[in-house]
Amino acid sequence: MATHGNGKSAGVWLERARAWAREHGIAAIVLGVAAIALTMPLATVRWLPFVDYPQHLGTIAAIHGQGDAIFDRFFVVEYARSQYLLLYVLGDWLASIFGVDGAGRATAILSIATLPLAVGWYLRVHGRPAMLGALAAPIAMHAYVFWGFLNYAAGMVLAIVALGTHARLVQRPDARRAMWLALAALATFYAHAQLYAWMGLACIVQLVAMAPAVGRARAVRALVGSIVAALPSVIAMAWWLRQSGVIERGEAGSRSGHAAEVAAQGAAPIFTPVADTVRAWLGHSFDVYRDGSGVTLAVAFFAGVLVVIALRGGRDAVVVPASVEGTTTSGPWWRRIIASSPEWPMPRTVAPELVLLLTFALYLFAPFSYRLIEPINHRFLPLALALLPVLGPRGALPMRASLVVAPALMALAIATGQVHAKRFGETDREMGELSAALEHTEPGGRLLGLIFDPQSEVVPLPIYLHAHQYFQARVGGLACFSFVEFPKSPVQYAEGAAPPPFPPRFEWTPQRYDHAVWGESFDYWLVRHESGRDAPRSIFRGAASPPEAVFESDRWTLFARPR
Question: What is the pLDDT of residues 355-366, one digit of tens each?
Fold first, then answer.
């Protein structure tokens, strides 16, 4: 009898596994292809064309290098000053395995390529077709990714995951789901505070929208669970606000003239006209290449959105998959996965649509700037666009439709990856001989970047503005200008290591360099200049012993202190 019972049980679980594969297998393949397509351009180039990316690498290097003399003499780490900790702490850990450069690349991939997976998870929790999350692939590398706001990109992914976790808590309130929500909210906060605030507002909208469907008793339990789950991240936020002074100073550092700018701006946030915001929407999202290929991705993306909207309707009834009826969550881990993966009975609500509406409203009406923290509202547009698949079917797609939509979504994701891979290859070549220049430096030195030509002919942004930070990340030492100048940085100067303060926006105006002021603070000067032109040696005018050019190429010249 026992053998017969075990055989029958195995047959039941095998059938449930097949049901799971039928329901979610196609979605898993589509989302996996989308993630891989986004990963390939990020993993296969030497230099990522993102403005702030070298700064992130330099920060990871300084954190990971604590205990090493070439970093200890320059930096101390003060985690309480910043909430941009998730990627830096993760990068520090990964650097032990892959090195600093590999850790930075891994954090970029995790921040960007996982967006379709997060959207797919959110759709699935609400009973929508998870494969439609792949439609987010074209917007995953939006304009603010190219600005290098990887913390924001990671925050988008985590905030969407946290929102899906909250929806599961509303559907079935219990302590385990509240715990997962607490962890997701805490991770979102330590990725980006703006996305954490959005997540909080979205959870409120979602709970209100779902309350009539789940019933009063369950909604009350979900509210209590949400409040308890919010406590760790709220406490972390309060601690950060107290330690960082961000409310009083915003982005202003105490070493520069930014404090005067904040005082002149006043305490009130700055808003931009809605019409101006709308007119510039492409610049806030898809318009990331000078040849217009980003706009082409936008056309393909919105064509996909229209197809998804045309499929809306689906099965709005409450559905209980046969494979779930009578299933418990006890037993081996693989049984729990199979048992819990098909969704429990759930009513269809308009919660995802209302969250989307909230996000677009924040894009249009939230402030543009507060105490030099900007742009605020413009960054909500990529998030809103990523959530557009919620306008699609409110229930599972029929198999025939899935077999048509799935190849189209995969083709769109693959085309997106190819567009980025081709342009990344062009910016790789455009970077020039930076590696060769850095080979003429020694670890533990002090380098000042003077980027006279930060612009790119491929990307309409100053993607080489912080390229000098590759010295700090790949060679080791102190590279300026750096984010250490700002209070948001978890890395600060060690006592006696700071160069004289730089004026506001010094990195944008290297012609203001005065060798009499900063000359004694550096051993190397890395100059990027226009192709075909020599480095401007006038920057060292008046120096008794001007630095010597130890490396010269088409775009880079490295000067060193005379021996």
Answer: 999 999 999 999
> Omega of the bond prior to 375 within 30 degrees of 0, cis?
yes
Split into its structural domains, the chain has a count of 1
- What type of residue sits at position 562? P
In a domain, 532, yes or no: yes
- What is the number of other CB atoms lying within 10 angstroms of the CB of residue 471? 29
Name the strand (E) or helix (H) holding 40. helix 2-43
Calculate helix-pair angle for 175-189, 150-171, nearest 10 degrees: 160
**Using DSSP, how many helices (H) and how many strands (E) does the chain show?**
22, 7
Q: Is 528 a member of any domain?
A: yes
**Which one, of 182, 181, 149, lies nearest residue 165 by Cα?**
181
CB 453 within 8 A of CB 528: yes
Q: Is residue 456 part of a domain?
A: yes
3 state SS of 37: helix
Nearest to 262 by CA among 273, 247, 272: 247
Q: Is 241 exposed, middle or buried (0-12, 13-18, 19+ CB in 10 A)?
A: middle
481 preceded by cis ω (within 30°)? yes
The Cβ of residue 109 has, within 10 Å, a number of other Cβ atoms equal to: 16
Asked whether the CA dihedral 124, 128, 134, 139 is positive or negative, the reply is negative
Side-chain-side CA neighbours of 491 within 13 Å: the count stands at: 28
Which structural domain range is residue 499 located in? 432-560
Describe the crossing of helices 53-64 and 86-112 by its angle, rounded to 10 degrees.
140
Distances (CA, A) of 209 to 346, 348, 353, 416: 14, 10, 10, 34
pLDDT at residue 315 tops 60: no
CA dist., res. 392 & res. 409, Å (int): 14
Question: Whose CA is closest to 207, among 155, 160, 156, 171?
Answer: 171
* Dihedral sign, Cα of residue 310, residue 316, residue 322, residue 324: positive
- Tell me how far apart the alpha carbons of residues 31 and 368 are, in angstroms, rounded to a whole number: 34
* Backbone region of residue 444 per phi and psi (left: phi > 0; alpha: psi in -120 to 50; beta: other values): left
Q: Are 181 and 189 in contact (CB under 8 A)?
A: no
CA 389 vs. chain centroid, Å, equals: 20
pLDDT at residue 333 greater than cutoff 60: no
- CA distance linking residue 137 with residue 6, whole number of Å: 44
> Helix or strand or coil: residue 326?
coil
Residue 366 is encoded by which pair of tokens?
């939230």
Residue 86 lies in a domain: no
Go through the chain and tell me how many residues it has: 563
DSSP code of residue 271: -
| Per-residue pLDDT tens digits for 464-518 | 999 999 999 999 999 998 988 787 789 999 999 999 988 888 999 999 999 999 9
Taking the C-alpha atoms of residue 546 and residue 336, their distance in angstroms, rounded to an integer, is 70
Q: Express each pLDDT in 292-314 by its tens digit.
A: 999 999 999 999 999 999 998 64
Neighbours of 450 (CB within 10 A): 22
Angle at 238 between CA 234 and CA 242, to 5 degrees: 170
For residue 503, count other CB atoms closer than 10 A to its CB: 10
Q: Is the pLDDT of residue 370 over 50?
A: yes
Site of tokens 């559905």: 319
